[in-house]
Amino acid sequence: MHREGEPQMRIKTLWLCALATLLGTTLRAQDIAGDWQGTLKDGAQELRIVLQIAKRDNGGWKATMYSIDQTSDAMPINSIALEGADLKLTVDAVQGTYAGKVSTDGNSIAGTWTQSAPLPLTLRRTTKETAWPLDPAAHTVQFITVDNDVKLEVLDWGGSGRPLVLLTGLGNDAHVYDKFAPKLIASYHVYGITRRGFGASSAPATGYSADRLGDDVLNVIDALKLTRPILAGHSIGGEELSSIGSRHPEKVAGLVYLEAAYPYAWYDPTVHVIDLTMRIDLAELQAKLGQLSQVRADTSTLMRELISTALPRFEADLREWQKDLETMPPAFAALLSSPLPPAQLAIWAGGQKYTKISPPILAIFAVPPDFGALLGDSPRAVRAAFEAKEGANVEAQVKSFETGNPAARVVRLPHADHYVFQSNEDDVIREMKTFIGNLP
């Protein structure tokens, strides 16, 4: 029998069911506590990201991020907010932000990671079976004392053959080699050093000059009782290579510069690569001005040097840098203007000028370089002009290095990433094996 009002009742019931479903979905999406992981891709470079989220006792959320292919260090999340399904977080340590939307089933977050430029990053909730280990490599870890109250984290991936010691770039610890090092252990016994101020190593207030950092490496070599190892350094690690190669060439069998033979490792006042030459000149100028402020007697020699050389050279650096800033893509300029942690600032302030390196050398350059997402969404013409200008500057640095080190093996890898041992792993391994195989 038909009852009056039945259609309306059905509509009301369906509407309530739909509302309950919607509310249930929203509640599930808001339950974001747990571990999440995803892969950040920038050109050929892939970085695995782990995000751990927990509820605070007084409400709200707290979180920690790991970039497990770069460092075992946790990066604290400075702010995290969830409004409905929209998640936002900031990581001040790397000047990064993430904005994403939680899926209706609460098992994934699709969003964008921004650190000078936006990159897509989808995070997925992990299980015991799918979770990536925070330290995924097979290695042993020990801590070696290199200075008063200073211990460095030293990784040992094992292997057989000649000792090979890997030094890192600025901001990384030795775990950045966790994927690369195992590819070498069939031929070499591979170690990695986390320099002071980074990762699990001690972070003293002082001791960041290039030669002091080089001495740290030598102290590790002595503690491990390694006989003339090969040293391979990435990026700023090149200054430690040059420090050792210029002062104690007898301690090593060879040096491998992995995108590392820039002004902090090989100084040529006529070459300008971004702001690197200016940083080295600034470090010297500050040291001389410091001497001037401390000396109260005859300062004529120091003043002549400042007036004739140091000050004019730094003025030229500033003029060159001013021209660069006028044409630099905004995203890249923002990256270079980001505040640096104390240890990184101290390393730049402790830069030195190296113009003579004695041991056998392999130097691998990304030239012309691939700036990838570092240039953001700048217009094509702006990108092209910047890439052409900086590509020419890098090539000038390469030629200067070749001229100053005529016996060195210099390799150009077109459009490789700065993390050349990741973007061009096979090329780097091949060149390293050939170079080391020819060492006496």
Strand order across the largest sheet: 4-3-2-1-9-8-7-6-5
CATH superfamily of the largest domain: Alpha/Beta hydrolase fold, catalytic domain
CATH topology of the largest domain: Rossmann fold
CATH architecture assignment of the largest domain? 3-Layer(aba) Sandwich
Distance between the termini: 101 Å
Uncertain ranges: 1-29
Question: What oligomeric state best describes the polypeptide chains here?
Answer: single chain
The number of distinct β-strands equals 17
**Gyration radius, in Å:** 26 Å
Tell me roughly what share of residues is in helical segments: 25-40%
Taking the sheet with the most strands, its summary is: 9 strands, antiparallel
Total individual domains: 2
Category from helices, strands and their pairing:
alpha/beta
Please provide the ordered H/E string of secondary-structure elements.
Answer: HEEEEEEEEEEEEEHEHEHHHHEHEHH
Count the helices. How many? Answer: 10
What is the residue-mean pLDDT, rounded to a whole number? 89
How much strand content do the residues show?
25-35%
Return the CATH class of the largest domain: Alpha Beta
Overall 3D form: globular
